[in-house]
Structure formats: structure tokens, C-alpha cells
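Re: weekly structure request thread

Next one in the queue (258 aa):
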Amino acid sequence: MKFSASITTMFKEHAVLDRPAAAKQAGFDAIEIQLLEAPVGELARAARNAGVQVVLLNAGLGDLRDGGPGLSGVPGREQDFREEFARTVDNALLLGCRAIHAGPCRLPAGTSRDYALKIYRENLLAAASRAASAGIQLLFEPINTVDLPGALLSDVREAAAMVRGELAGKVGLQFDVYHVAMTGDDVLAAYADCRDVIRHIQFSDLPGRVEPGAGKLDFAAIFAAIEASGYTGWVGAEYTPSKTTADSLQWLVDAGKR
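Done, posted below.
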């Protein structure tokens, strides 16, 4: 298994431009960036100097972090989404990153879910075309409604069905162990049901979105299932350490990667 580390949620004991090197020292060959916290050129240089690959970048979320509906499935904000996504593609190319997460949204007040999903699918298809022209894989991910009240898409099997439908061959599913578990779903069963369309995996333990072993999930079984399935993509640690990041990596030792 190939593990990557989020420098948005992990290694925050370090200045942002020092986090790629800290990740490399901890045993990771790849990093993920959910939120750009420094000029993209400086981040690209820091990653190159550290010898780590940037494997995932999130598209901008508009006003989602401030409690708004966001962009990706919001009627009337289609142009805003597409302009933001174009900027993300440019940033990904500077970073040498070949996968982008399109980002979630909330169901806007007064909008039917069916209509918002229609906008979401249309935006994903437009983004997928733009990404493909740059040699980049587009991903999307269901988000649990505890962490994101009003999330437009929270069911991983519904997301997988979308990928098998009109998004087939254009968009991949990002399977986040934490979000699946927070919906009350069985992680191993959901993974088996969705494996054919999964193109990226992320994980953290619950409650609290902490490192494996600090919560209640059985990560030995989860990692074993991923490995046994033949999945060869990146498996991204995206958690908030309950201690220093370096001290939170026993799971990486247990997986034989450190």
C-alpha cells in the first residue's frame, strides 16, 4: 500500500512550507493538499526539495467553510465553480499533481435536491473535461451530514452509482473511510460494493477525525481489505492528530511502512 499524508491536517507543528520535508522524514513519499496556505510556487518548490509527490489537490470551495452552500452543486454559481476549478487545474499543474477533488456543497435553501444534483453532475462533467485536457483525474467524495450539515451528497453507494452512470470513465470516486463510517455504514461492506469505481482513498478514525488507533475503527481489517482488493492507488492519511504528528504514526509502523 502507498500512503500519502495531508499537510493541511497533519504536520501542523511545522510552518506550511516545512511540512513536505516533515512528511518525508516521517516516511511518506507523497502529500495531499486540501487548502492552499502558501503561494503555490513556493509549495511546489518545497515539495520538490523534500522529494515528495503531490498526489491530491482540492478545488476551492467558495463560501462553504463560512457556512454558505459552496459551489459544486449550487444553481446560479456554475460559472464561479468552473472558474475556480480552472484555477485549481493551473495550480495542480504547477504542483505536478494529477488528481483533483471537486469539493462538496450544501443543498441550498429553496432548491430541490434533484435539481441541485443535476447542477452537480453538469459541473462535474465540465470539470472532468477540463481536467482530462490537462492529464488530471477528477475525483468527488460524499461527505457525512454530521460534519457538513445539509451536505448534498452523503451516501457512498449513491456516489458510486453516479460514477457507473453518466460520469463513467470521466470521474472517479474518492472513498473516505471516516465519512463512510460517520454515516453509520459498514466500511468494509461499502468498500467492497464500491471498489470498482474507487480511484483514491482517505482515512481517519472516529470520533474526532483522529489517527488510527485513537478511535474505534478496526484499521488492521480496513487496511487488509484494501490491500487484498488489489487497489494500487494512494491511501491518504487525512486526520487531526491527537498528539504531535510524529507521535501519531504508530499505525504506519503497524502497516510496515515505517
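The chain has one domain: 2-254. Residues 116 and 250 are 42 Å apart (CA to CA).
Next request, please.
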